[in-house]
Amino acid sequence: MKLRKDMLIGEILSVKPQSIGTLMSFGMGCIMCPASQMETLEEAAMVHGIDPDMILNALNAEDDKNKEESEI
Q1: What is the CATH number of domain 9-65?
Q2: Is 16 in contact with 63 (CB distance < 8 Å)?
Q3: Cα radius of gyration (the chain)
Q4: 39 contact partners, CB below 8 Å, separation of at least 6
Q5: Count of CB atoms situated within 10 Å of the CB of 24
Q6: What SUPFAM superfamilies does the record point to (predicted)?
Q7: Residue 71 pLDDT > 60, yes or no?
Q8: Which residue from 19, 24, 46, 70 lies 20 to 30 Å from 55 (Cα-Cα)?
Q9: Residue 44 has what pLDDT?
């Protein structure tokens, strides 16, 4: 499943819990607080001054990498 900028942080973490590490690596340390669960990825990125497309690309690349490894 490809993630989108309009997805809620809570939704992303629900479908891809392994995304926590990637989000944290971008400085989004508060992703586990209740308020952030209702923000979209784009909103959360903008609050932190991060390009949402950069995070989105990293999250989806992580998924592509995991898919390739499982096919080996």
Answers
A1: 1.10.3910.10
A2: yes
A3: 12
A4: 8, 9, 47
A5: 13
A6: SP0561-like (SSF140683)
A7: no
A8: 70
A9: 92
40, β-bridge pairs? 8
Best CA proximity match to 22, nearest among 69, 51, 47, 57: 57
Print burial letters for 38-53: b (CB count within 10 Å at least 16), e (below 16). ebbbbbbbeebeeebe
Which pTM value belongs to this model?
0.81
The answer to whether residues 22 and 59 touch, using CB atoms and an 8 Å cutoff, is: yes
With tokens 């952030």, the residue in question is 36
Percentage of the chain surpassing pLDDT 70? 86
